Every structure is written in structure tokens, then in C-alpha cells.
Amino acid sequence: MQMIIYMRNVDMNLLKALDALLTEQSVTRAAHRLDLSVSAMSRNLTRLRAVTGDLLLVQAGRKMVLTSYAMEVREHVHEITHEAYSLLQPTQKKLNLDTLERNFTLRANEGFINLIASTLAKELQEKAPKSCLSFIEKFDKNAQALRDGTLDLEVGVIGTNAPEMKTKTLFRDRFVGICCHKHPLLQNDEITVQNYTAYKHIVVSRKNKSRGPVDIELANYGLERQINMVVPSFSTAINIVRNSELIGLIPLSTLGFITTESNISGITYFELPVITPFINISAIWHPHQQDNLEHRWFRETIMKICNSFPIH
């Protein structure tokens, strides 16, 4: 009875977290089950321990096991959770895409917009012809627009200070170098750190930052890039590189993941002479959209398109 009395003073999400923890007997697996981060589930466990006055899960060698109290209430918790959410979750109407009139809003950088816009437009025209999509340029990672519903979905590198957000990795990107197709760099049999740093470079940064992961790796060789220009967008950098001898650095996705032909409209991309981390590109949305049929169709459509990319 102790747990039921105190549960009146906590949110229903804790009940769902408790059910997952007692079923999975693992913070990591419980987090995966509810599509939460491990740190968020760990915080839930801390709160549940305070609410119940019991440790619930304890370490036993390399794994965690239930306390005697947790074993006693496990089945009851599962039944209560199922009944509570069945009662509180209204039955949704069947989604009719032919008559759907909704303006979806998606915040992303220009590279992703250029990559997906035409394919997504075709999907919307064919499947949901009365719907509309508004792309919003990504100036920051403020999560408030996702919370208040003015933004449906964000795509990019996870960086919001909002642990409650739902996320799904769409694909893995990587940086490549670009130069004009007649650049003297391409006359070398191999692009090394020495000939890569022998030329001037252009950098893309919305915050006027000229250094990044490539420069950290080059520093290990005692070398650095000669930064000649900083611009705010990848499209600007590509146009400048096409008509100059500056060397650029962009995500491969900006070129549409064209991996079979390195010479693209006057520019050539090449693999960097240093190793940089992959970039995990994710879809981010607020939990209040999780079970909305319209939103689910929208994000699943984007996921389907991204699954067709050659890099995952």
C-alpha cells in the first residue's frame, strides 16, 4: 500500500518507467523499451526509489536483480500500468491521408533540406495531397518550439537540453573535402596531410568558428589549415569552391550521398587524409506527438526516405 499511496503525488510516466524497470531488470533495456536515454531512465529509477522507499533494483555481479519488494509488486504494477494507460489513452480515429489537411513543420539545416525536399514533396503529393510542409531554417537547438507544438520535428545532431525528447537516428554522415575539378591538389597520386594543408581553405560556420575535428587531427601531425574564408552555409561554400582554388569541408549528405561519381558539377569531393568521427543525424520530437497518427506517419515517411541513403 505504501507505493500506491505515494503514487498519487507523482506523474503517470513514473508508473510506466517502474513497469519497464521491473520487467527488464535493467536500466539500459528499460530505457530502450520506452525510447528514452539511459540517463533519463536512471533519473526515473532515483525518483522511484524515493517514492517507494525501496531500492527496487540492486547490483548482483555484472547484472541487476529485483529486491524482494520489487518481485512482490511486479505483476501488480504491470496490470495497473496496462489498465491505467488503456483508460487514459483515447482511441484514435483511423488516419485518412487523402483528406488530411495539416501543415507539418520541420526544422533542419540547408544540407538536409536539399537532400530530402524533392523526395518528401513527391511523397506528400502522392499520399497526403492536401497537406503542406514548412521547412524552418535551423539557427539554434532551442527545444521550446517542439514543446509548444509550433514545430513538429527537428532533424540534426542531438544537442538540445531537453532529455524528455524522443529521438531516432536517421543516418550517419561524414565529412569530405571538396575542390574545383581542376585543382592542383588532385594532381597528386595521394592526398596527404602535407599537400592537403598546402592550400588555402574555406570553412562553413554559422557562429564564425573556423576550427573543428579536422584541425584537431591535423595538430597531431604538427600541421594546420590555412583558413582564408568563413561562410554561413554549405551552398555558399560549394559555389565559391567551384570557382576558386579554395578547399572546402562539407558533410557528404550535402552532395546527396553521390558516392559513385566524385566529380559533381564542377567540383570534386575526396576522402580526407585524417579520420574524423561520424555524424549521427537524428529525428527529434516531443513526447506529446508520439502517438499522434498524423505525426507518426510524417516521421515514419522521413525515416523511410533516409533508410534509402547509402550511409546508415
Question: Can you describe this structure?
Answer:
The protein has 312 residues and is an alpha/beta fold. The protein folds into 3 domains: 2-88, Arc Repressor Mutant, subunit A; 103-173 and 279-307, D-Maltodextrin-Binding Protein, domain 2 (3-Layer(aba) Sandwich); 175-270, Periplasmic binding protein-like II (D-Maltodextrin-Binding Protein, domain 2, 3-Layer(aba) Sandwich). 38% of the residues lie in helices and 21% in strands. The chain contains 11 helices and 13 strands. The strands form 4 sheets. It has a 5-stranded mixed β-sheet with strand order 4-3-5-13-6, covered by helices on one side. A 4-stranded antiparallel β-sheet has the order 10-7-12-11, with helices on one face. Strands 1-2 form a two-stranded antiparallel ribbon. Helix 9 (213-219) links the parallel strand 8 (200-204) and strand 9. Helix 2 (12-24) packs across helix 3, helix 3 crosses helix 4 and helix 6 packs across helix 11 (293-307). The protein is globular, with a radius of gyration of 25 Å.
